[in-house]
């Protein structure tokens, strides 16, 4: 199939960093580590890795393959590939679903990214110093209750995202990933080093890695499967868009392994950075989102060197939010750039303003629109629920089914570069295991 001229990553490493940056987000900094500690430690990690291998990796490879073959935005790519293989035009809906999911997710993700920016500034000016638990909780509650404060930081975060994405694939997405990902890892390692010196590193290791096989049950396995799917930015059109900038010389499976290893290692390092601080200050590790914006600020405000540690931590959180956010904006930008006369900059501005406007509605759901409910959910929670429980699994399912059942098997096998045994394993996993896993996550999420 003749391919249009299309932007390309400058190197495999640039692509790996960008893809890993997309996968490493706010959830990696607290959610994964907490799930490990609360769901069986090393036992959960093993289940998670199995789910990644059987569900996450094949869908990641499928989305990259679709993007690389189409060399266009997810919607056009799905439409073209379906036509080339004599399949229904309805397959384009997989691309539509992915682009829509990324757009909707960024609208509320940017609000949380704004919280991180706000707390970064708070660390610099000593907002948390000497505060007790009630005062720290009051700061967080006061931020949520103030539409002006939320609007200011949501806007600041989106300006950063738009500024990066407008610069293009190599100068924007790739350059940001090359800067932010190493900085993120360095900050993480410094915080882990502090955790080692705190005297509570052993407790953190035990919390996260002591195997507790009795904790494993159906719910934990489902949680591991869901985390394996969502942590890799699957079902959002992101990996299709990133794949469209990928050269033919990149081995998809080995690259997917590298991205998954980076994503998992960074998530585990986050736990080893956070939990020694939590345990050293006698705080609860089971606070969920409150761990980031209530529990840790309390610790930072009442410990030696807490100002510097707090600044590093919230910078880390902001970097993680940014690397994911720029990837979430890309599918919509690529679509507008290719389907309209818009330039890259104009498409980015249009997409970013649309996301910003929807984000305003999301942030108002914490205050002046708190009583505006749809299906019993405020706007923020509705966006979260609709994307995570419906759009993402359906898009991921569509991608793996399309690659496994619609693309010509010989060309797929040639692109994977596997041995005959490897091809057989791939066919079983891609055709049956991975789709079944996504269907299970989808159905249980709706129950």
Please sum up the structure shown:
By secondary structure, the protein is an all-alpha fold. 77% of the residues lie in helices and 0% in strands.
Topology:
Elements lengths: L11 H12 L2 H13 L3 H29 L3 H11 L7 H34 L7 H13 L1 H19 L3 H29 L3 H9 L8 H13 L7 H6 L8 H29 L9 H11 L5 H34 L4 H21 L14 H27 L3 H8 L3 H27 L1
Helix pairs in contact: 1-8, 1-12, 1-14, 2-9, 2-12, 3-4, 3-10, 3-12, 3-16, 3-18, 4-5, 5-7, 5-14, 5-15, 5-16, 6-13, 7-14, 7-15, 8-12, 8-14, 9-12, 10-18, 13-14, 14-15, 15-16, 16-18
Structural account:
The mean pLDDT is 92. It is built from 18 helices and no strands. The chain is mainly α. Helix 5 packs across helix 15 and helix 7 packs antiparallel against helix 15. It comes from Halomonas qinghailakensis. Keywords: Membrane, Transmembrane, Transmembrane helix, Transport. It is a multi-pass membrane protein. It is found in: Membrane. Its main location: membrane.
The ordered H/E elements are HHHHHHHHHHHHHHHHHH
Average of the residue pLDDT scores: 92
Helix percent reads over 70%
> pLDDT under 50 segments (min length 5)?
none
Over the alpha carbons, how many angstroms does the gyration radius reach?
21 Å
| Count of distinct strands | 0
Assign an overall shape: globular
Content of β-strand:
under 5%
User: Strand count, sense and closure of the main sheet?
Assistant: none
Structural class: mainly alpha
How many helices? The count is 18
Between the first and last Cα atoms, what is the distance in angstroms? 43 Å
